[in-house]
Amino acid sequence: MDLNSERTGRGLAVALVVVEMAILALIGLSWVGSYWSWDPQHHGDPPGPYLKKAAVVPIAALVAMAVAGIRRMRAVAVSQAVMFIVICGTMLCLKAPGERVYEDSYRNACHAGMGCGDDSPPTR
């Protein structure tokens, strides 16, 4: 592999990582944004649908890794493998805290007079 194609591979690897991180940031900010309200009876969204949307990114990284491996673009394949592992690990670690945030938000809305029958959040 010549020097020019190696630089192109590195540039592509960096571009893919930036795009993946931007997509994940937008998904995360949209979930966090569901909690911004002046209404004390408002509660945010559960994290499950947002995690499903975010799961597209590691799947795309896995596909990009396979294509890069076939095309012998080592920098892209390695960066996408790392992104797959990091994103999946992060999603697993953030699931439980996200559910706790949602449950606390729902409980606070109930105490503010939302009219909840019991103290458990609805299942969606």
Structural class: mainly alpha
Q: Distance N terminus to C terminus? A: 51 Å
Provide the β-strand percentage band: under 5%
Oligomeric state as shown: single chain
- Count of DSSP-assigned helices: 4
Mean pLDDT value: 85
Q: Quick one: overall form?
A: elongated
Please state the CA-atom Rg, rounded to the nearest Å. Answer: 20 Å
Number of strands: 0
In percent, how helical is the residue content? over 70%
Largest sheet: none
Uncertain runs are: none
Order of helices and strands: HHHH
Q: What does this protein look like?
A:
The protein has 124 residues and is an all-alpha fold. The protein is 76% helix and 0% strand. The chain contains four helices and no strands. It has helices at residues 3-33, 48-54, 56-70, 74-114. Helix 1 (3-33) packs parallel to helix 4 (74-114). The chain starts with a helix and ends in a 10-residue tail after the last helix. The model has no long low-confidence stretch (mean pLDDT 85).
Task: Report a brief summary of the structure.
The chain is mainly alpha-helical. It is 76% helix and 0% strand.
